[in-house]
Write a sequence for this structure.
């Protein structure tokens, strides 16, 4: 039996209602039933299905939510490199459309920064790179970052002195 508690607030004429899917524990007014059904319908339309039970109630199991998360792996890395080779750095829309539709532009930018080993991608914008060229850029950025103490979290952190290298 699924229980749901709906509190419609002090500003309305609704009282706190407790209902069960198989039997009602309290008499609901027609207006309260319509409101509850509307909430469930909106939730079904607007909420990620992975976060809902089939009856429209919110999933309370953290395990189910964790399983819905995206994972970045070697396959995605290779697809991003192929996108950079084909479309160039910063052209997230076409890269996303080609093969990484589940990733947004910000996520692709961050993953690209990790590939290049550089926080700022402005020097790479619009340029096309092969996997070997990306690895070479990463190694050079790591060298500079370690020499200057600016290698943090796997990237060369932007500094005025090294922004144009």
């Amino acid at each position: 039996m699924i229980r749901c508690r709906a509190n419609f607030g002090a500003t309305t004429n609704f009282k706190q209602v407790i209902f069960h899917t198989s039997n009602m524990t309290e008499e609901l007014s027609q207006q309260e039933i319509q409101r509850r059904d509307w909430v469930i319908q909106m939730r079904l339309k607007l909420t990620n299905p992975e976060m809902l039970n089939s009856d429209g109630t919110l999933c309370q199991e953290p395990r189910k939510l964790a399983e819905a998360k995206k994972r970045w792996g070697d396959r995605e890395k290779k697809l991003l490199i192929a996108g950079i080779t084909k479309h160039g750095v910063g052209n997230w829309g076409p890269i996303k459309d080609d093969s990484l539709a589940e990733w947004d532009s910000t996520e692709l930018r961050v993953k690209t920064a990790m590939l290049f080993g550089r926080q700022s991608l402005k020097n790479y914008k619009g340029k096309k790179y092969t996997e070997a060229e990306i690895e070479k850029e990463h190694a050079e950025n790591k060298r500079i970052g370690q020499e200057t103490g600016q290698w943090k979290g796997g990237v060369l952190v932007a500094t005025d002195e090294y922004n144009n290298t």
